[in-house]
Amino acid sequence: DAALDQVALGEDGAVAHMRPGSVLVETSTVSVTISAGIARLAEARGVRYLRAPVSGSVLLANDGKLGMLVSGPREAFEAVLPILGLMTAHQLYAGDGEQARVLKLTVNMMVGIIAAMTGEAMAFCLKNGVDRATTVDGIAASVATSPLFGYKADALKARDFSPRFSVAQIAKDFDLALAAGHALEVPLPLTALVRQGWAAMIAAGDGENDFFKCTELAIRAAGVDEFVIHARKAWLQGLSPKENREIPPLDHGLVLAMKRAFPHLRISINGGIADLATVRGFLDRGLDGVMVGR
User: Fold this and answer.
1) First to last CA, the chain
2) Which residues are CB-neighbours of 256 under 8 A, at least 6 positions away?
3) Distance between CA atoms of residues 192 and 206, nearest Å
């Protein structure tokens, strides 16, 4: 909000220098409050203001498949629709006010809650002896799956929480949603509960990791401390599941590094190990188990 306030509002802001009749298309995920302030100034200046936050993952952005939620004057939306079509794959007109802002916060609320729910589901399975890969594959093949889960499946298997959308970013969006709900007395108990998880992660130094690392919170809380890690890198595009087990390179050193980083966990290695001498070598270097044959 502060960044948009500085850029858009005030005597030196963008709106103050726009010509009457021009169209302002603003694509940030911000609060309804700051957006309404821009709307008032834009109306006073005769500027047509479109709230147009984008929705989608980094992969969708790279593929040119992002969506856009748009609200504001319909005639302005229709006037710039050809340009919006060059920026995003699909555009939803949501209404003439702040509806796009609310929808974007709603989507991000659901995304975060799904991540937290996934953590509980994985903790339940792992504690009951279902391995990580089978857990992920089972959910992905069920009615409980979603495009989001499919996008995160390989990362969950590999415990790869390189940031696509960070904990700090989704925590900010949860704060915006909770503030909007509070202003209208809309109870959001699940959102408030999951927000506490983001706070715990930020306090633990995980604020810049991907928000799906919240799955590890539930797993740790369940006392799951044994992990089998496949050393082969997962390629998210262009390979079948069978090819992903054969073509990408192995990184045994990463598994050893994880054991050094988390010595209290029982960590076993899998991937490209075919003889007993190699097995003994990994055990001698501190790993707790070795899977042979894949």
Assistant:
1) 50
2) 269, 282, 285, 286, 287
3) 19
How much of the chain exceeds pLDDT 70, in percent? 99
pLDDT at 99: 96
pLDDT > 90? residue 241: no
Q: How confident is the model at residue 7, as a pLDDT? A: 81
Rg (CA), the chain: 23
SS (H, E, C) 1-67: CHHHHHHHCCCCCCHHHCCCCCEEEECCCCCHHHHHHHHHHHHHHCCEEEECCEECCHHHHHCCCCE
101 near 30, Cβ under 8 Å? yes
Checking if the pLDDT of 201 tops 70, the result is: yes
Alpha helices in the chain (DSSP H): 2-8, 32-45, 58-62, 74-87, 99-127, 132-140, 147-158, 167-183, 189-203, 214-221, 241-244, 252-261, 276-284
Residue 119 vs residues 7, 26, 162, 237, 262: alpha-carbon distances, Å? 38, 34, 17, 24, 19
> Rounded to two decimals, what is the model's pTM?
0.75
